[in-house]
Design goal:
- By secondary structure, the protein is an alpha+beta fold.
- Helix content is 17%, strand content 36%.
- The chain has two domains: 1-45; 66-251, Exo-inulinase, domain 1 (Jelly Rolls), CATH 2.60.120.
- The strands form two sheets. Strands 1, 2, 3, 5, 10, 11, 12 and 14 form an eight-stranded antiparallel beta sheet that branches. Strands 4-13-6-7-8-9 form a six-stranded antiparallel beta sheet, with no helix packed on it.
């Protein structure tokens, strides 16, 4: 009986161990199957690719102005078709106080968008009214020109009435200028003084902009054509002795 009881007892322990192991194994299998099922149901995440140099290179390039002409008056004015009254001292061009003094650039921009820049200072003024200076481009057939003008230049402190010098830029002929009501002509009071100042005229399509010492002073737009003329460019002055230097032309 003892042996039998021992066998019976041993047999009972063996059965319990076997059932326990089977139960653990079944639980593990269930867990593994559950994890696999969850992974199968989860939405797939697309793989992230590192940015390439090509993608970074798609930024829009900004056009940089390019110097295309620089005046050299030390060689004389033979190519400038000057009227009487102009002289050259080193790299500086100078006018007298006579009337209707003009020079014409021996260079015509080959690009539709361009800028003409120069430095200028007033030395002396003729007595009386009508003193002015201007940079202008002639209109051509079907294409408008422009005039960048400083007028009524007087000596500070000599004005009997509030008659200030003015600066402006306008389309030539003026009838083709875009109408902005009260702002059709952007005329502003301007005191050039006798110091060196930098003038720049930028042409971009039908738009002409005058900048003085790096600041926008006036602008105008043509309604006739999508591009202003790039023909003969003149500098004109009357009743003003002035000096000019560093005349350059840039493509924009």
């Amino acid at each position: 009986m003892t042996i039998l009881s021992g066998r019976l007892v041993a047999s009972g322990h063996t059965t319990m161990k076997t059932r326990t192991a089977a139960s653990v194994l079944s639980t593990l299998v269930s867990l593994l199957l559950g994890v696999a099922a969850l992974e199968a149901c989860a939405p797939s995440t697309p793989a992230r690719r590192a940015p390439t140099a090509t993608a970074e290179a798609t930024a829009t390039a900004i056009a940089v102005p390019r110097l295309v002409y620089q005046a050299d008056w030390s060689r004389g004015l033979a190519d400038w078709a000057p009227t009487p009254g102009w002289t050259v001292s080193g790299a500086v061009l100078q006018s007298d106080t006579g009337n209707d003094r003009q020079i014409t650039l021996p260079f015509r921009p080959a690009t539709p968008n361009y800028a003409v820049e120069f430095r200028l200072r007033i030395v002396n003024l003729a007595p009386g009214a009508g003193t002015q200076y201007a940079l202008r481009a002639d209109p051509a057939a079907g294409v408008d020109g422009f005039v960048a003008l400083v007028e009524h230049v007087t000596v500070p402190g000599t004005r009997l009435f509030p008659d200030h010098p003015h600066e402006m830029i306008y389309i030539d002929p003026m009838t083709d200028q875009e109408d902005f009501g009260a702002h059709t002509l952007q005329i502003h009071d301007y005191e050039p003084g006798t110091i060196w100042r930098t003038y720049r005229v930028e042409i971009r399509g039908p738009l002409a902009t005058l900048l003085i010492d790096g600041r926008v002073a006036s602008w105008a737009r043509s309604t006739k054509a999508p591009q202003l003329a790039a023909g003969a460019i003149h500098f004109y002055c009357t009743g003003i002795e002035l000096q000019m230097s560093d005349l350059t032309v840039y493509s924009l």
